[in-house]
Amino acid sequence: MGHQYLALKVLLLFWAGGLSLFAQTAESSENARSKLPNFVIILADDLGYADVGFQGCQDIPTPNLDTLAREGIRCTQGYVSHPFCSPTRAGLMTARYQQRFGHENNPKYDPNDPVAGLPVSQVTVADVLSRAGYVTGAVGKWHLGAAPHFHPLRRGFQEYFGLIGGGHDYFRVGPPGESREYFIPLQRNTEPEAFQGYLTDVLTAEGVAFIRRHHQVPFFLYLAYNAPHTPLQAPESWLQRVSHIEDPTRRSYAAMVAALDEGVGRVCAALKELGLEERTLVFFLSDNGGPVEVTHASNAPLRGAKGSVYEGGIRVPFIIRWTGTLPPRTTYEQPVISLDIPATIVAVADTAFPTESAVDGVNLLPYLQGQRHDPPHKSLFWRTGGGINWAVRSGDWKLVKVGQQAEELYNIGEDISETKNVSHQHPEIVLEIRRQYETWNQKNIAPIFEGPRRARPAGNKLQKDANRASAQP
Q1: Is 377 a catalytic residue?
Q2: Which domains does the chain show, CATH number per domain?
Q3: 366: cis peptide before it, omega within 30°?
């Protein structure tokens, strides 16, 4: 009996010790998880390079973005990986040049199209962070495919609220059964939902609510505004604040930018109120340059606009803030690209993309903290139309190929406006950079789907209605 009692006592001691060790391990794991940094990406849509105060804008008030720039690092040569909407977003989600997997056009809005969207073979930053224990949420414009398997909840995000397509009316939702892209209901997760008020304000409120819900755990918020993309619509109160602008088109655009700026301010205020500033890495940028002729945005002093591989199509306002970790009131002068954002996030979260992803972005933190002084990239690349247009930035040199025109060479360090083509003076540089492009392009594939204008006949009434809605003043 005594031996049995002793054995039982030893067994109980081992069991208690195991429970204690399990509890300590769980507590240690939870403590480690609670110390992980948060991440917020704020993406504007069609914002002009020169249309925010920290880029020198004089007629549009952007006090909150200007504060964010002062509190963080302004990347003076910040680029996106494509000169228009959806392909840039595909790169931003994957840290890969989107030409690697054929996402080179805007997908048409078609919930029955199984191809037009971010290929499901691609791992997203939300996939990686979700597996690492993060709460992941997307708010706003998706534009990475309308079929169910492209949905944010199938791409690593645990929560979603926003517009699945490429744009939306800022005040209205169509009747039940609406199928026009700019009037379909928004979605809360997968359920359709109408909205009240001004869409920019609605998206801001959803972004702030996500932060408040999850402020005690590590989170990743992707807040993708559709402002100031067309249709040019703003409440009268915001139009009054920019009434000094005489051009009515630019005045509407400016009101939309100002409303966006206030939204960024509300997000930053929530982070500050909850004591999260030092635990949250914040990125702000636009998805491409401003469409100058359409919205009267300004990309000065850059040449070109949205859709162009000249600087005006691909160089954007670009801010990185991490209070207490990155130096404030700083500029970073080396070229960086939107692909670096997901690569940096994953590295800071102490996790990784799958090695087979062949990530093109780099972790910017060592460069921004002064631990490394070499450029993050030897060269940056752009391609549209399957290679009809392309460009390479290599050091201060930029080689541009537009359609059937001869290659153009610019020294961006001396000629930011790309006005002096020096290709004839430096044929050896043209040859070297062209070889770089050809080597890079060998790893790319042809576009796997066409844009909506090619995919649908001009007489399609729904497409006409959607185009009209997106272009209305």
Answers
A1: no
A2: 36-378 (3.40.720.10), 387-441 (3.30.1120.10)
A3: no
3-state secondary structure of 30: helix
Q: Which of 143, 151, 229, 296 is catalytic?
A: 143
| Cβ contact 127:136 at 8 Å | no
> In which residue are the tokens 């649908």 written?
456
Give residue for tokens 């918020």: 221
The model's pTM is: 0.90
- What's the one-letter identity of residue 147? A
147 Cβ contact list (under 8 Å, min separation 6): 110, 111, 112, 113, 114, 116, 117
Measured CA to CA, the distance from residue 309 to residue 402 in angstroms comes to 8
Helix axis angle, 199-213 to 248-273, nearest 10° = 10
Pairing of strands 159-163, 186-188: antiparallel
Tokens 């700026």 identify what position?
A: 261
**Which of 57, 75, 82, 85 is the catalytic position?**
85
Q: What pLDDT digit, counting tens, does each position of 272-311 carry?
A: 999 999 999 999 999 999 999 999 999 999 999 999 999 9
143 is annotated as an active-site residue: yes
